[in-house]
Amino acid sequence: MVIAVTGATGFLGQALLEQAQSESVEVRALARKPQGDRPGVTWFAGDLANRKALNRLCREAEAVIHVAGLVNTPDPADFAEANVTGTLNVIEAAQSVGVPRLIFVSSLSAREPELSAYGASKARAERLVMASGLDWTIVRPPTIYGPRDVDMFELFRAAKWGVVPVPKVGQSSIIHADDLAALLLTLIPGGEDVTSRCFEPDDGKGGGWSHDELARAIGWAVGRRPFVLHLSRRTMQWAARADMRLRGAKARLTLDRVGYMTHPDWVVSAPGRVPQDLWHSHIPTRAGLKATAQWYRDNGWL
Q1: Chain centre to alpha carbon of residue 106
Q2: Where in the sequence numbering do the catalytic residues fall?
Q3: Quick one: DSSP state of residue 108?
Q4: Does residue 174 sit in helix, strand or coil?
């Protein structure tokens, strides 16, 4: 089996490459910068704006897993170019070289596109995928965690300091990157159970995690019992402005993120669940959080 992968150098992409290697799946991967040799991976230089590179990437592949996308930016206008136009370019490349199957990694935020420019861009990209004429499956992951992740790391670091700030109310689902990567590979063959379907996978915890529960679980993972600080929407907006002043383009908390972070319900929906006989999560979340914390320590992040 040969697959084409965008976003292979990112957090989820790296987990996908490791999973593909373990299953002897050959990968054609897109990268902006030169990459070292990796068993089972052929690298192609380019990005989502380079149509020739995308055509080369997709040629000879049986399926495309489109992971790449922009998740954070100080300028919300950037989301349209990366997530909408970029997805259109991937679709057209698959069509032009005759790749029949497309698996698109969207986001649970696409369910509420009015809350953020990021969610709106993912919702628009989903509509392009649905109208593509390809054999498609859309995956809307909730919060993803695991080794190499820089977003959830902020909570791990805060927990180590003893205070974890969270939105005042709400609950959300969560999934380990390795579980999500396994699902993406499972979906490659397609079939009537998965074609033209939109899935919302998670760790299997019914009702998701309240903000308090998740903050305390992360605290346990780093060996602390942190104080959970509940922040109002207005306070989070102030914090986002402060983060953007301090870190500029590297700010992790932006006003756009506040828009969807303060939404009270990011729990996966029952209609979006993946059939149990096809896939289910294998990594217990508390164990996954603890292993992630250890990875952060081993690599000097914590």
Answers
A1: 7
A2: 118
A3: G
A4: strand
Q: What pLDDT shows up at residue 21?
A: 96
Q: Enumerate the β-bridge partners of residue 6.
A: 66
Amino acid identity, position 277: D
Cα separation, 99 vs 89, in Å, equals 13
Strand partners of residue 108 = none
The neighbour count for residue 22, using CB atoms within 10 Å, is: 13
- Rounded to two decimals, the pTM is 0.95
Domains located in the chain, CATH noted: 2-141+176-201+269-282 (3.40.50.720)
What would the mean pLDDT of 173-198 be, rounded to a whole number?
Answer: 96
Q: What is the DSSP letter of 166?
A: E
Report DSSP state, residue 268: P
Contact 155, 215 (CB under 8 A): yes
Q: Given the structure tokens 């019914």, which residue do they identify?
A: 206
Distance, CA of 199 to CA of 136 (rounded, Å): 11
In sign, the C-alpha dihedral spanning 35, 290, 274, 191 is positive
What residue has token string 């760790």?
203
Cβ neighbors of 205 (< 8 A, separation 6 or more) are: 173, 174, 285
